Design the sequence.
């Protein structure tokens, strides 16, 4: 198993540009989520999904969009990038919501100029 | 609202020492608690998961405990090695309507000196 994979590893955007961060898992996990990690802030939940076709907002959803058309993939879209979205983004998955171990991807380091 | 605190923020120890990392949480209605390791520029690696009904979990030189009544978890590392140097994060999963997310502490940066 490849586990949780994320692309790209690094990205530089200009303010106002849009892009999609890709996340995929091959463990047949129902629950997937996106976190951002900022210095001094810890990791914060952006959006999550409990299965294909079902998504919901986390703590910091503004400026981000998600969809889940398959069990394997959970892309995160930045609609109009802002410098405040400069961060490291992590995708995570687990077998189900609740009591299961979470597995994290390697992260995408995003810089918005 | 659940808040998770990790003390100390940084710890430096000589190789071979046994050490304890601390994690405290404000809401005792916790579903489970997970410890992670993060190397610089890398993702999070899961170390141990403790369910709310458990008091401890062990994996190799690592032992994690959970005391819901006091709102504390500890990660014990025996016979530390330079390869243990990393940031250690704890995260609590809420129960009931909050079970969709992990609330993370800000981590303890561990340095093990040869």
Sequence:
């Amino acid at each position: 198993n490849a586990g949780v994979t994320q692309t790209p590893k690094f990205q530089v955007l200009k303010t106002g540009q849009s892009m999609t961060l890709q996340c995929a898992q091959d463990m047949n996990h129902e629950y997937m989520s996106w976190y951002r990690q900022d210095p001094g802030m810890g990791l914060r939940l952006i959006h999550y999904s409990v299965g294909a076709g079902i998504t919901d907002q986390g703590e910091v959803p503004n400026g981000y969009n998600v969809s889940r058309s398959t069990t394997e993939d959970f892309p995160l879209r930045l609609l109009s990038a802002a410098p405040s979205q400069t961060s490291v983004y992590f995708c995570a998955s687990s077998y189900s919501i609740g009591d299961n171990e979470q597995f994290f991807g390697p992260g995408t380091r995003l810089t918005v100029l | 609202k659940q808040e998770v605190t990790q003390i100390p923020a940084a710890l430096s120890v000589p190789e071979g020492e046994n050490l304890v990392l601390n994690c405290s949480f404000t809401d005792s209605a916790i579903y489970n608690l997970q410890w992670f390791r993060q190397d610089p520029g890398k993702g999070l690696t899961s170390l141990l998961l403790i369910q709310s009904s458990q008091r401890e979990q062990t994996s190799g030189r690592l032992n994690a405990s959970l005391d819901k009544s006091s709102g504390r978890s500890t990660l014990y590392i025996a016979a530390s090695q330079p390869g243990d140097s990393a940031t250690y994060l704890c995260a609590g999963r809420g129960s009931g309507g909050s079970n969709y997310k992990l609330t993370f502490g800000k981590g303890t940066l561990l340095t093990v000196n040869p």
Notes: The interface with chain A takes residues 31-32, 34, 36, 41-46, 49, 51, 89, 91, 93, 99-102, 104-107 of chain B (CB under 8 Å).
